[in-house]
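The record is given unchanged here:
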Amino acid sequence: MRIPTLSASFGAEATLLLTTLRDGALWRMLVLFALLLTLAAQLPLHYAIDVGREDGIGSDLPLVRGMFPPEEAAVGLFRWTTERAVVRLPGVGQRSLAATIRVLAVNDEVATRGARELELWSFDQRLALLPVRQSGAIYHLLIPPPTDWSGDHQIEIRSATVTPTNDRRAVGTPLTTMTVFAGAGPALPPWRSILGWFGAGLALWVALRRSGFDPKTTQALMMPLLALAATGAWLDPPRFAFGAMPALIALTIGWALVVLLRAAPQALRLTGLALLVISVALWLIDWRGPTLDLGWANIHLRAVAGLVALASLAAAAIRPACARTAARLGIAVPASHWRWLLLIVVVVFATRYGGKIYPDSMPGDIGFHANRFADVASGRVFLVSRNRGVDFPYPPAFYLILAPFTLLDIDRRALLHLGAALLDAISPLLVYTLAAALHRRRGNGSAYCASDCSFSTPLVAAALYGLAPAGYLTTWWNFSTHIFTQFVHLLLMTILVVAWKPARSEDALSAHHLPLHQRRRIILFVTLVVVQLLVYLGHFGFWMNMSLLGGFGLATLAVLALRRRHGALQALAFYGAAFVTAQIVTTLFFYSAYATMFAQQLATATTGGLTGLAGRAPAPFEVLWRTLWDAGLRQHYGFFPLALIPASITWLMNGAATQPDRRRVTAVVLALGTIIVAGGFAALPFFSGSTLSTRWLMFSAWLIAVGAAAGAAMLWRQGWAGRITTLAAGGYVVWVTASMWLAALLWRIRPPEPF
């Protein structure tokens, strides 16, 4: 590592950043954005909060704090307030609000022993002293602009509390609705919200420019997004204001990801070492530094320095190795593709991580996984969980991998959110690699496009995998171990297709090439075993799916070996040994601990079937079909990508037959095996009546992305009609993803559970 080289690397990065920040187009666009947000704060406001409606459009979260969970009365939903309950209305501007507050009637006990009056405060200013009536009341009052000139209103309800008979809560008053009105401006805008979104726009610009987009293209990409953001500020100012900090955090990390994927490895190495020294020094003096609020959890400066240090060192080590491997395998990513790949990475990370740290977005199973994480960290690795009435092993691989990061004093929930989002963001790069290996033209490894190069199949596959609704289902449900296992499963599929090489006879190799060949075989063998172990110990359903798929693949190799196909016997021995080794290690060291449970479940299922095992009545055929069609085929993938799979399978099989290519042959075997496994588990509920699932549709995600992209490329080449159809199908997929993401983000509307 030479000092001049490092200096040049840092200088180049600094020059790029300064050039990006000096661009006039950036500041013109951001000033226009700020003006639009300022204009939105001048518009008339009529905003209703249905207190007690926790989920759904019109819900009260994240607007209320200091209140008990919702309850329902004959007159509607409500929440009991605590001693100090708060209604937050950020983003409405520095102006007065006319408020209407409705509280429900109370019983004799609460009326006698409870609050006699309500105090309404705005920050440190008391607004009113309201008498409490047993019959309920509707109060009208004028709320002045915030005294801190922020434009973010906060209304606090203070009252005495009472603990009713047979209740452990100290309750105040039953609040049911609150409505605020404001006339048109002029008014000072909410500067905190505008600054936050201004910073988010700046981070997005820097990320896109560092990805390789020129200023004109970057501006064209950002303008629709800024227009949508301004529309959000107009339609729902408070919820838009709540999104400023999550957007800023997520897009800043997205920019950091781009830098990790683009900066010179030597600069990353030195940065990582410097930050590692700083974080160790902070740990030695026991100083955490400022704390950053990430919604569900907090993270401090010392932890951030440690994470960035480890990420920089990992990127500096992994990227050169990946580049060398890709070059040896004949896979090159054109510069024109890299920028779009990085855009996909940023969008996937920002939407998934930003969505999870948005205040009171759909929590999913984060509490469950945080508790399982704690169990594993304390030494209890043989976990049991229950799904639809059936106990099953709960593999701990993801928790074990994350456990060392808790030494940085990072909250478990923050680690789970961040780890899952990073894996999802990296996944499109693997899908691109897999698709590029199948669509590489002979003699030109970089031409991964349709006949006129207006359609890049690998890029479309990467975008579909990253932005399809299915991946967001796992994010919103917070299926942490599933997300990890799906990533490792995708890695395994990519290795099998890209690195597949039937073992050559050592007698046919020269003495010079023999040691290198043996070393590569050992590396590939160990890699296959380790990646399989991570899949099997990551998720029980994926272990079942992959065991069946591996068996199908080995059976296919055995048939080819019997027909004396060249290299089939050697490949069967090599990959069979890797498969059997991984299965033995997994069964011996983990699943054998559940042998008694498996035996009891088998005995129960033998006599009562799967419904008897679950202790549930069979699901009606109509319910199963509606779930498969709507929740599965439509809401998982937007249906149209699934309709393109047969065409792509036909293309792969024809290509493998006319121009034998080891990668296409491997992909055909894996694709057919995946279809058989997924189809079997899809049909099983119709015969058994049980809704137990191995996540078979998510297991097929790699095939759907790669196959649908290939089918779309074929459709794209059929003239303007084909292109319009392709764009319409893609637009529908994007619409399903966007609407589902927004509903879970703002109103906690649950999408279907992934299966």
About this structure: Residues 307 and 408 are 8 Å apart (CA to CA). The radius of gyration is 29 Å.
